[in-house]
Amino acid sequence: MRRRSRERYSDSDMDNNHETEPLDKINNDQSKARHEEESEKHRKTIGRFRIALFAAGIVILLLLIIVIVVGVTKKYEKIEPCSSGQRVDLSEPLVPSIFHDLTSKEVKGMMDFLFKQKDLNLTRPEKMSVKSSYIFSAELHLPNKRDAISYLDRGSGQRPSREARVIIFRGDLLIPKIMEIIVTPLPNPTHYTTWIDDIPFQYRPVTGPDYGGALVSITTKTNEKARQLLLESFGGTLVDCGDTCLTYKYISPMSAAVSGRKERLYWYWMSQFVEFYILHPIDFAVLVNMDDPNYAIEKVWYNEHTFDSLDSLVKQYNENKLQKKPILFPVMSENLFSTLYRRGTEVPKTNQRAPISIEPDGKRYSVQGQHVTYMNWDFDFRMSSTRGPQLYDIRFMDERIVYELALQEVSVFYSGYKPTQMFSNYFDSTALIGPQDKGLVPGVDCPSHATFTDALHVMESSTKPIIYKNAFCIFEINTGMPLRRHHSFSSFHGTMYEGLPNSVLILRSILSVVNYSYLLDVILYQTGAIEVKVVSTGYILATPFTSNAPNFGVHVSDNINGNLHHHMFSYKVDLDIEGTHNRYRTLDISTTASANRFNPDPNAKIIQGQFVISEKKTEKEAAYKFNFDTPKYHLFYSNLKSNKFGVPKSYRLFNRGMSKQLLPSGKGNEPAMAWMRYQMAVTKHSDRERTSSTIYSGLDALDPVVNFQKFLDNNDTIVDEDLVAWVSMGVQHIPHTEDLPVTHTPGMDLSFFLLPYNYFPEDPAMGSRDSMRIEPNVYNNPKSGVRVTGFNNEDLQCKPPSNSYKEMVEADPGILFETAEGQSTSI
After folding, report:
1. Where is the composition biased (Basic and acidic residues) (predicted)?
2. Are 455 and 101 in contact (CB under 8 A)?
3. What span, in angstroms and rounded, lies between the C-alpha atoms of 250 and 141?
């Protein structure tokens, strides 16, 4: 029954469904449409809301960025420039110290006085000639040391007069000569006295009239007679040459000691007239007699052969009697050795700036004129025209350690097959060392925060003082090396850390003598130590390649050799240790064998080092030549002052730049540099033995004006006397390809130190605020926490000064380069 009813229901239901299907379908479609319409409206509403929300987010983000930028900008606007620190006053003093360079006022007074002296018959620079009387140079003449010390230490007696030492070339005399006179007192001199009056005229260095006259003469003669030869052989000419010019520039002296003639002979080299012209030599040179009024050419060197004259060379060349082998160098505009453009792999990969040094609290040193104060240090400095940088009255904790620390000479002796380098024995004082130091560049030569000072010179080209800008730089710098430090990690040794960063003051000058540059530093340490450092850079003196003499040079580029040469430096160190009554001793280190009492073998020995004190009594005993078999400590001390243990308070001279001069004594130009026979010599101070070399050394080897060996031959006693140490340094240089284009500084540095030795009761730098100590709160228990003392937060709260050198040199090129007037920019 149920099933039947069900079936009946199903049949009926099926019939009804067939009847109502069209109506239901319409209703469903309408409902679906309404639903879709409402969904679409909902989706649009949500979309509009999302867009509005996104737009609001962007607005909020932009506002947030603006707030941050404004905040940061305001924050940096509030950062004040860093304090300038101690005072720096570089103005010329009205009353200069006894060590200060000549002032412009003093130069004017000196010149006015000299040109009124009829017996000197002086010619002004614009009219000077070889046969006239003219001033070659003038600079400060120091007072006698005893007078200076008396004034400085006790304030007793009269202040020593300011004086000038003037070199005059007397070409106007029947027998020409060189005079050195002392003009006094400055700034209003009343008289002069003769210092040296018998210097042979032939010893004079090459001067403006000499060099210029010879250059015009030999250029004209060579162009008239050998123009076609030069064009065919070397692809250029001396005049009317466009961009393929050749030039005579570099010279090599032939002193009487090597030429056998008492005449001034110079080899003039020829090279391409391009940047780094010395790296573009050609195999052509002429020997010029500088004493001949017509500058006679006495020899000609061409393609590894010597000729008696230009006429002889050209005749043989035109008659095809010479093997013609043109050596056409690359197009001169394609300078292979220029540093104008970078090449090789660029580093870093991105344009990141190099680290810089800053002074967060300003300068911790002061400069007043040419006097510097730094922490416990005081000293005066100046630039000698003839000898370069000089320091005086160097004091630590108000006690004088050095009265005079002064460069004396820079020499370079070359070797070679060709005459141009065979005779290239240079004494840089002949070109005047002081004026070669100028134009130091902030950010490269010295830190940009350094203090830059100028140098004043009196030279033949002007009666007015010539000012060379940026001749010195003075700066304090963290060397990146601790001055001291120790770390005890284990509790077995006692946990602690202590260290002191090594901040030093540096007085720097850089000499650029034609092709070479020499960095000269005096470095003052907080321990009372002084370091004198020399570093060589610049570019090598090249010669045209030859296979005839492989042992003289290295083939470093297609057409050039880099030749063996020896750089040598002489320094004067006038030490005053606890006064001027000093002694010099060495601690000679050796080995000793003694019975080993702790070995059962009765014949057992223990061998160990020992030192033996050796007191030096005379100058000859104190002439030191290094021997690896006999190492020594070199000590200077006063026998009147000892520490509480009875040990003399001393300073140790430690030379890390020693070099042996291999030339035999008395041969060639060696006598002119007798100071290089010794790594150090100690003499009794004499006001007549002021320098180890002179501007005449390049030509006076047969009879040196200053014969250093005679300083020692006196053999004065040096016990309880005022002592002077003469220190020499040097480095042999065999060039290599990496020296091109410019020799790098690593491995080219030399230095000597003056180190306190039992002078202080302990390290005098223990008072430095720069030190740091880290230790546990409870001794030897790091778990108790640690305390740090002396840590300096490196977060800058001020804005360091910017390096504006680029704008300065663009506005005034005279800072770096010679101006059209032939002088550096005057202040």
Report:
1. 7-41
2. yes
3. 32
SS3 content of the chain, % helix, strand, coil (to 5): 25, 35, 40
Residue type, 506: I
| Contact in structure between 689 and 671 (CB atoms under 8 Å) | no
Residue 330, pLDDT above cutoff 50? yes
Three-state DSSP at 670 gives helix
CA nearest to 672, candidates 265, 389, 255, 386: 255
Helical axes 208-234 vs 310-318, angle rounded to 10°: 10
The length of the chain in residues reads: 827
Q: What is the Cα 75 distance to its own chain's centre?
A: 40
pLDDT digits (tens, 9 = 90+) for 590-637: 888 999 888 898 998 988 888 888 999 998 998 888 888 889 999 999
Separation CA 456–CA 624 (nearest Å): 37
Sort strands 177-184 and 163-170 into parallel, antiparallel or unpaired: antiparallel
Residues 521, 505: Cα–Cα separation, whole Å: 10
Q: In this structure, what token pair is assigned to residue 62?
A: 């932009």
Q: Confidence band (pLDDT; 50, 70, 90) for 208? A: confident
The token pair at 162 is 């300011």
Q: Which long-range contacts (CB under 8 A, 24 or more apart) does 623-626 make?
A: 623/677, 623/678, 623/681, 623/682, 623/712, 624/678, 624/679, 624/680, 624/681, 624/682, 625/660, 625/677, 625/678, 625/679, 626/658, 626/660, 626/679
Give residue-wise pLDDT tens across range 715-763.
999 999 999 999 999 999 999 999 998 999 999 999 999 999 999 999 9
pLDDT level of residue 580 (50, 70, 90 thresholds): very high
The H-or-E segment that residue 85 falls in is none
In this predicted structure, the answer to whether residue 4 has a pLDDT above a threshold of 90 is: no
Q: Please indicate whether residue 134 is annotated as part of the active site.
A: no
Full 3-state SS string of 709-771? HHHHHCCCECCCECEEEEEEEEEEECCCHHHCCCECCCCCEEEEEEEEECCCCCCHHHHCCCC
What b/e readout covers 409-423, taking b as 16+ CB neighbours within 10 angstroms? bbbbbbbbbbbbbbb
How far apart CA 404 and CA 400 sit, in angstroms, is 10
Report the distance separating Cα 452 and Cα 435, nearest Å: 16
DSSP label at 686?
-
C-alpha span between 393 and 189 (Å, rounded)? 26
Phi then psi for residue 277, to 5 deg, are: -60, -25
**Spatial distance between the Cα atoms of 99 and 141, rounded to a whole number of angstroms:** 9
Cis peptide before 447 (omega within 30 of 0): no
Torsion on CA atoms 429, 432, 434, 438, rounded to nearest 10: -120
Per-residue model confidence as pLDDT tens digits over 493-502: 888 999 999 9
Q: Is 516 among the catalytic positions?
A: yes
Cα-trace Rg, the chain: 39
Q: How confident is the model at residue 781 (pLDDT cuts 50, 70, 90)?
A: confident
**Res. 156 pLDDT band, cuts 50 70 90:** low
Annotated catalytic residue: which of 268, 516, 525, 696?
Answer: 516
559 pLDDT band, cuts 50/70/90, is confident
Handedness of CA 424, 134, 820, 803 (dihedral sign): positive
Residues contacting residue 232 through CB under 8 Å, at least 6 positions apart: 324, 326
Q: Which of 474, 395, 500, 396 is nearest to 86 (CA)?
A: 474
Given a cut of 70, whether residue 274 has pLDDT beyond it is yes
Residue 815 has pLDDT above 50, yes or no: yes
Catalytic-labelled residue, pool 428, 454, 521, 739: 428
Average pLDDT over residues 513-538: 96
Query: Across residues 408-413, what is the average pLDDT?
Result: 97
Instruction: Supply the pLDDT for residue 340.
Output: 63
